Amino acid sequence: MENFTFYSPTEFIFGKDTENECGKYVKKHGGSKVLIHYGSGSAVKSGLLDRVTASLDAENIPYVMLGGVKPNPRDTLIYEGIELCRKENVDFILSVGGGSCIDSAKGIAAGVPYDGDFWDFYEKKAVIQKALPVGTVLTIAAAGSEGSGGSVVTKEDGMLKRDAGSDLLRPRFSILNPALTQTLPAYQTACGATDIMAHVFERYFTNTKEVEITDRLCEAVLLTMIKETPRVIKNPDNYDARANIMWAGTVAHNDIVGVGRSQDWNSHGIEHELSGLYDCAHGAGLAVVMPAWMEHVYTHDIMRFAQMAVRVWGCEMNFQNPEATALEGISRFRKFLHEIGMPINFEELGAKTEDIPTLIDKFGIGDGETWGFVRLKASDIEQILLNAVNAKV
Ligand code: NZQ
Ligand code: ZN
C-alpha cells in the first residue's frame, strides 16, 4: 500500500426529513447570508425548496436564490452566481440538487473571492486559494460531489467540459435524505448507479499491490449496487434500497475506497468529451465508455480483471484460461448496464462514429499519453471509442 492522507471534512447528515435541519447546519458552519442554488425544477416541484427556505427562515438566516442549473452545468450561470454573491454579500452557498448543482455551487464558491476569471481553475491556469463554504442538500445518488473536492463544469462556448479540484471545495455539510431520490425517473436513477460503479472501478484498477482492504471495500460497494439498483428501478419508493445506494454514492467518491493505491480515471476523461459534445448524462456516457475501456486494457493485468469477474460478478474462475474469466466479467458488467436501461453503444447514446476525431481532438492529448492503470495514447482512445461504437450484449 502507498502512503496516503485521507481528508474528508464534510459533516454528513443522513436520513428521513433531514432537509428540515439545513438552517441549523448553515448556522453551525458560519453562514449568515446564503445563496440557495438549485436546478431546473425538480426541487421546486417536489416542495423541497419550500422546506429548505422554511428551515433558513426558522434560523433567521437571510438568503437569495439562483435556480436554473442544467445537467452538465454551464459556466454562464456561474458568472451570474459570482456577481449575485458579491452584490448581496453572500458568505455561504447552499446547493439543493444533484451533482451538477453542487459543481456549479463550487464554481461560484471558488470564483467569488478570486480576482481573475473563475474558468482559470478549470483550465489549470490558477490554483484555488480561497473559496466560500458550500453545503448541500442532495437529491440524486450519483456524482459523489457531496463529499468530493471536485467540480466539473462545461464552457458554453465550444462545449468544453473541464474539472477543477481543491480540498477547499469539499462541502462543509451534506444532507442526504434517500427519500428525496424517490422522485427520480428510472433512467436518471440508472445513470447515477452507473456513475457510482464507475467511481469504484476507476480506483479498483490499480497497479499498486497488496491493497486488500480497499479492494474489499470497492467490492462491497459494487456488490451493493448490483443488488440494490434493480430493486429501485422496479420499485422507486423502496427507501431502504435508496438509502444503501445513497451512502454507496458518497463512499464511492470521497476516496475512502481509493486511498493508498494508484487509480485510473481515463474512462472519466473520455466520457467528459462525450457529455461535453452531446450534452448526454454523464452516467450514460460512462456505460458506453467503461466496458469498452476494460476490453482495451484487460491484458495489462488479466488476474485483476479475473478477480473482478469472480468476486463482483460471481463468475467461476477458469484456472486453465483466466483470460476467459476476465472477459466474462466485462461482459456481465455490460449486460448489467443494459438491464438497468443504460445505453451500451454509440447509437444508443446518440453518438456518431464520424465524431471520433473531434472527441480525440477535444481530449487534447496530442502526441502525449495519459496517466493511469494503463497510459493511453490518442490511438488507444480511438480504439476504445471504436470498441464502444458497435458494442452488444
Ligand atoms: O435540475 P433538476 O430539475 O433538479 O433535474 C435533475 C437533472 O435533470 C434531475 N434530478 C435530480 N434530482 C432529482 C431529479 N429529478 C427528480 N427527482 C430528483 N430527486 O436529474 C437530472 C440530473 O441531475 P445532475 O445533477 O446532472 O446529476 P448528477 O448528480 O449525475 O451530476 C452529473 C454531473 O456531475 C459531474 C458530471 O460530469 C455531471 O456534470 N461529476 C461530478 C463529480 C464531482 N464533482 O466530484 C464527479 C463525477 O465523476 C462527475 O463527473
Ligand atoms: Zn463520475
Write up this protein.
The structure is a single chain. The mean pLDDT is 98. The protein folds into two domains: 11-180, Rossmann fold (3-Layer(aba) Sandwich), CATH 3.40.50; 185-389, Dehydroquinate synthase-like - alpha domain (Dehydroquinate synthase-like, alpha domain, Up-down Bundle). The chain has helices at residues 22-28, 42-45, 48-58, 75-88, 99-111, 119-122, 186-204, 212-234, 239-251, 266-278, 282-297, 302-311, 322-339, 346-349, 356-363, 378-389, and strands spanning 11-14, 34-38, 63-66, 92-97, 134-138, 150-155, 160-165, 173-176. A hairpin with a 4-residue loop joins strand 6 and strand 7 (160-165). The protein contains 16 helices and eight strands. The protein is globular and about 70 Å long. The protein starts with 10 loop residues before the first strand and ends with a helix. 48% of the residues lie in helices and 10% in strands. With 393 residues, the chain is of the alpha/beta class. The chain has a six-stranded parallel β-sheet with strand order 1-8-5-4-2-3, sandwiched between helices. Strands 6-7 form a two-stranded antiparallel sheet. It binds 5,6-dihydroxy-NADP and zinc ion (ZN). The site of 5,6-dihydroxy-NADP has 33 residues, from helix 2, helix 5, strand 6 and helix 7.
Helix content: 40-55%
**Bound compounds, please?**
5,6-dihydroxy-NADP, zinc ion
Let me know the largest β-sheet.
6 strands, parallel
- Quick check: average pLDDT? 98
Quickly give the CATH architecture of the largest domain: Up-down Bundle
- Portion of residues in beta strands equals 5-15%
Got a strand count? 8
Number of helices: 16
Q: Low-confidence spans: pLDDT under 50, at least 5 residues?
A: none
Kindly identify the CATH topology of the largest domain: Dehydroquinate synthase-like, alpha domain
Question: Rough shape?
Answer: globular
Based on CA atoms alone, the radius of gyration comes out at 20 Å
